[in-house]
Design a protein that fits this description.
Pfam families: Myb_DNA-bind_4 (PF13837). This is Myb/SANT-like DNA-binding domain-containing protein. It is a single chain. The protein has 277 residues and is α+β, with helices and mostly antiparallel strands. Among the domains are: 52 residues, no CATH class; 77 residues. The protein contains 10 helices and 4 strands. The chain has a 4-stranded mixed beta sheet. A hairpin with a 5-residue loop joins strand 2 and strand 3. Helix 6 packs across helix 7. The radius of gyration is 25 Å and the shape is extended. The two termini are 34 Å apart.
């Protein structure tokens, strides 16, 4: 039975640079939206047109040969070949790195990043004999770059949806980061909803208006309390305000714990899918 190959039923599987994966036999990898199963089919002009891909697809090695080299040895932090690098960062090792970086998240925000990467490398050194801090940092930056490309592409009108095996676990970590623009509101391999700038602007204006009204109410309440009941009632109003602040802190903490639980759940699912050695 012939496969129904269309953008309605399949998404293109991409590599860490956001490029469609083409095998040595000139087959393209597709992911079934319904079953999440992978299929390898001949990469033809019709398939390229269906998914909006250039044909023929230029390979990275061909691009390097055609482009002048401007980098020096000092600018190349990793000397391993692509084949050696792929051996280091297989699916299992990449998931381990993601989980390790997540555990050091607070230290990355408050400490010297170079020292934190040394700690990450120490935790990951059993993955490969040549692994060092620079390898881990470079791989993490590559994961972030791919995540941003997939997120932007999947939420741009007219773009084809793309599948990436690490998207969900990366999204659980990154979607609340301030450097991610726009910020997604859900985690899904089949499309994410992102607030547009106008919507975000309206939300900010609404929040600002609420804050102004709350401040005015507090100021008015303070004046009335001073006039009617004096210091004792004012302290009572201050206590209520502090309780509201504490409630907001608790809510943020609960949200953070929910995100961590979501990350752990996704991570366990990815580990379960790995073939047993």
């Amino acid at each position: 039975m012939a496969m129904d190959i269309s953008e309605q039923t399949y998404v293109v599987v991409v590599d860490e640079e956001g490029r469609p994966i083409i095998t040595a036999e000139n087959n393209i990898l597709l992911c079934d939206k319904a079953t999440q199963g992978l299929s390898s089919i001949p990469f033809t002009v019709n398939i390229a047109n269906e998914f909006g891909i250039a044909y023929p697809l230029q390979k990275p090695c061909e691009q390097q040969e055609n482009e002048p080299s401007t980098s020096s040895a000092a600018e190349t932090p990793i000397t391993e070949t692509n084949e050696e690098n792929s051996k280091i960062w297989n699916t299992e090792n990449t998931l381990y790195l993601i989980d390790t970086v997540q555990k050091f998240d607070k230290q990355f925000s408050s400490g010297v990043k170079k020292n934190v990467w040394l700690k990450v490398a120490e935790c990951c050194k059993h993955l490969h004999k040549t692994l060092n801090a620079k390898h881990c940092e470079t791989k993490w930056k590559s994961l972030i770059r791919t995540y941003k490309n997939i997120l932007l592409g999947n939420n741009t009108s007219g773009q084809k949806k793309r599948y990436w095996e690490f998207f969900d676990v990366m999204h659980a970590i990154m979607f609340k980061k301030p450097e991610i623009t726009p910020v997604a509101t859900c985690s899904s391999l089949r499309g994410l909803r992102v607030p547009d700038p106008e919507e975000k602007s309206k939300q900010n204006e609404s929040k600002n208006q609420i804050n102004v009204e709350e401040n005015n109410e507090i100021d008015n309440s303070k004046s009335e309390i001073d006039e009617e009941s004096g210091k004792e009632n004012f302290e009572s109003e201050f206590s209520k305000k502090r309780k509201r602040k504490n409630s907001e802190v608790e809510k943020r903490h609960r949200d953070k714990m929910q995100r961590l639980d979501r990350f752990n759940e996704l991570f366990e699912k990815m580990i379960d899918k790995l073939p047993e050695k």
